[in-house]
Amino acid sequence: MTTLALLLFAALPVAARADRFDALTRPIPAGGRMPALTVLNYHDVHDDIRDAGPSDIDAISTDHLIAHFDWLRANGFNVVSLEDVVQAMHGRRRLPDKAVLLTFDDGMLSFYTRVYPLLRAYRYPALFAVENSWMDQRDGESFDYNGEQCGRECFVSWAQVREMQASGLVEIASHTYDLHRGIIANPQGNKLPAAAYLAYDGKHGGYENEQTYRARVRADFMRSADEIQHETGRRPRAIVWPYGAYSKVAEQEAKAAGMDVSLSLDEKFPVLAPGQTIPRLLIADNISVNGLALMLYQEQTEVAPERVVQVDLDYVYDRDPAQQEKNLSALLDRIQRLKPTQVWLQAYADPDGDGVAKAVYFPNRHLPMRADLFARVSWQLSIRTEVPVYAWMPVLAFRFPNASGLPALGKGGANDKDHFRLAPWDPRVRQMIGDVYEDLAMHAPMDGLLFSDDAYLRDTDNLGPWAALAPVQRTQALIDFTRELAARVRPWRPQIKTARNLYARPVLDSAVEAWFAQSLPAFNAAYDFTALMAMPQLDQQTASDGWFLRLVKAVAAQPNGLNRTLFELAAFDWHSKQPIPAAVLAHQMALLQAHGVRHLGYYPDDFITDTPLLETIRPAISAATYPYPKK
Fold it and tell me: What is the pTM of this model?
């Protein structure tokens, strides 16, 4: 999660009360081991959690925090300082086993009144991130903090900061000077995290460019670091990103201001190496020690199942803005009711269904923009349904206007049954496609990339210098190109994950790799997930149980195959031009699960016509505990 939706992240449900210590003796699962470091992120602390109000899901009660500290100590966890972590990142010191770093955000007064006394009692160090502008409010000023009006009195004073720093237990980090807020970031007026996104100027109808964005965040970081240094005598070396959202571009500017340690929010555990952003686990919903234990041990358990719905943004788009908003509302309502774990959302326009991007749904430098729509829909899905969104994009299937002379792989005529695909061996092609991916990342929130099914090579294609490559080398050459595209995205969206479509035939017959330049083992090594198109219709095969079971057997034969492969089913028969009944889809999903498949998805989802039928497909695709309609 790389967006404001992280603040809506609900901790794993826990029925037990805080004073129950069922988790105290929970062992590390067989074959597992604790990571080198776990970083916990807390916010406000209240003696009575009801005082936090219903909007502040990140607050924790004092008794639960004490229970967390007791549990960490009783279970042999070692609370370390940021200095310990920095030394370990540079290889100068080894962290103790089961190391934990405690972090507290927002500069709340409760850190001084409730947390600081506990740190002294337990001798636990902590990192405390302050947002300067909140501390610097004038008398009578206030703003909405999680549903409550907060003035300067809600936050620590500089005198209190100096006292805590002098104890040697508390290190001060910057939470930015005034970037812990949303800024208008698209024409529809959606607000996105100010530190991570380009601002949109509705008056003049344009976005910030990279230079303006850099100057804006640089000025904020310098002001924050300068003030902390002035008030405490020490310049902060760490920046803690508001909402966990950041860009590598902003990270560069923070380092220029003297803050070369960067902390975000993520479900991952840290990689201890210089320059690596440190992800943190968000403590939310006042979780008990059982919830804390689940969070710390969850990475040691088997891979959590993914449930994916792939959506055509073409179904949302409408020339009539009012109808477009109705379409978006229908999508949000359906995803909220389906409760998948991910949505793969089309970022390019394909109204004629040929899989070729002739226009896109975001500002860019090479293709027409059908509408500036992807950012709005992606963001609404993230905050309204709390579902991560992957941007679904072609890899080679682009038709750039006014770009004559770009070589293509195929002839692209009426008799060519393949996608129109540009030649990835051409430097101009690579540059232009990379530009489009970079423009997507600059302008839109997303949690991942889905590389579409157009990334394949035929022996009969115009392979240019790649003609001399062996099939396995062509497979790797295409993988390397997708990695190059992901590298163009990561300066703006550093936390993205990747998935790539794979046809079924190369899985069922390894010799077919020569005809597709696709390989399941190679894909599973290169991407977070392989999106296997378990769609017999594409190969003119009957959708029999036997066909699906042969596919499962072939995937299971690969190392870690079922953990890394998502089986994506067809919800539409492109030959008969008819939707596949939801009951058939549900049967196929149940069959796959019964034979060991962990990750499932389907395409397309037609939220306008309720296809597949929601109440039929929901129990099969939903990640909810009880995905059934209320009686």
Answer: 0.91
